[in-house]
């Protein structure tokens, strides 16, 4: 992984084709929410499929927890759709058969010349594509568990949601004064974006 991809850095805003063939930018897919980004070898790898199967349940929680997930693999569009459907995923998969991400991040898995995949990583991003945590998944148990990702999302959400604890006297007083910009979905930042996406 490139040396500058560390906590606090801004992750590159890659634009790739999604599983429907539409070009999508990571920043647009993230919107105002934390994002779990899975950099995957591809659907051919049983470890990737097992990880994705485990993420399906977490994704259901993320949908109601205002968080996003995206998988990028070096699969072509057909393979991307087979991978996504085969594990029962409902989040966005991006196809990168030209290996733009692999080359730019310097994560070519040089031990597999047959498939030329990326070294798998999971990257947790705060809003604005700010890197929160990076997991190297070359070995399967280097990948985060679902519970670790829940904890990461909790910490990232606590940082980016001004109304995380609405029991504080300051927030109660702001609400009573009609100052709603700190509250979801009234805020002028993530609240506006949320309403536009509905």
Descriptive account of the structure:
This protein is 36% helix and 18% strand. It has 198 residues and is α/β, with parallel strands linked by helices. The protein has 2 domains: 15-160, Glutaredoxin (3-Layer(aba) Sandwich); 162-198, no CATH class. It has a 7-stranded mixed β-sheet. Strand 3, helix 2 and strand 4 form a beta-alpha-beta unit. Mean pLDDT is 92; it is low at 188-198.
Rg calculated over all Cα atoms? 18 Å
- Count the DSSP helices: 7
The total of beta strands comes to 7
Give me the side-by-side strand order of the main sheet: 2-1-5-4-3-6-7
How many domain units?
2
**CATH overall fold name of the largest domain:** Glutaredoxin
Order of helices and strands: EEHEHEHEHEEHHH
- In helices, the fraction of residues equals 25-40%
Mean pLDDT: 92
What labels describe this entry?
single chain; 198 residues; alpha/beta; Glutaredoxin; 2 domains; seven-stranded mixed beta sheet; 36% helix; elongated
Summarize the structure.
With 198 residues, the protein is an alpha/beta fold. The protein has helices spanning 26-30, 46-64, 77-87, 100-105, 146-160, 169-176, 190-197, and strands at residues 15-18, 23-25, 35-40, 68-73, 92-95, 121-126, 130-136.
Task: Give me the secondary-structure topology.
Blueprint: E1 15-18, E2 23-25, H1 26-30, E3 35-40, H2 46-64, E4 68-73, H3 77-87, E5 92-95, H4 100-105, E6 121-126, E7 130-136, H5 146-160, H6 169-176, H7 190-197
Parallel strand pairs: 3-4, 4-5
Antiparallel strand pairs: 1-2, 1-5, 3-6, 6-7
């Amino acid at each position: 992984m490139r040396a500058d991809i560390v906590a606090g850095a801004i992750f590159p805003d890659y634009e790739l084709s999604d599983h429907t063939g539409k070009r999508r930018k990571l920043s647009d897919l993230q919107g105002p929410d934390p994002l779990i980004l899975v950099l995957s070898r591809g659907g051919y790898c049983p470890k990737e499929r097992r990880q994705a199967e485990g993420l399906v349940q977490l994704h259901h929680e993320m949908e109601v927890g205002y968080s996003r997930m995206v998988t990028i693999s070096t699969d072509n569009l057909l393979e991307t759709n087979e991978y996504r459907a085969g594990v029962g995923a409902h989040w966005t998969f991006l196809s990168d058969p030209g290996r733009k991400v692999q080359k730019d991040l310097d994560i070519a898995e040089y031990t597999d010349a047959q498939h030329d995949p990326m070294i798998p990583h999971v990257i947790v991003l705060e809003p604005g594509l700010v890197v929160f945590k990076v997991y190297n998944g070359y070995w399967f148990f280097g990948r985060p568990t679902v519970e670790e990702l829940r904890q990461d999302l909790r910490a990232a959400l606590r940082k980016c949601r001004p109304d995380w604890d609405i029991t504080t006297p300051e927030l109660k007083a702001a609400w009573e004064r009609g100052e709603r910009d700190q509250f979801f979905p009234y805020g002028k930042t993530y609240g506006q974006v949320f309403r536009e996406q509905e």
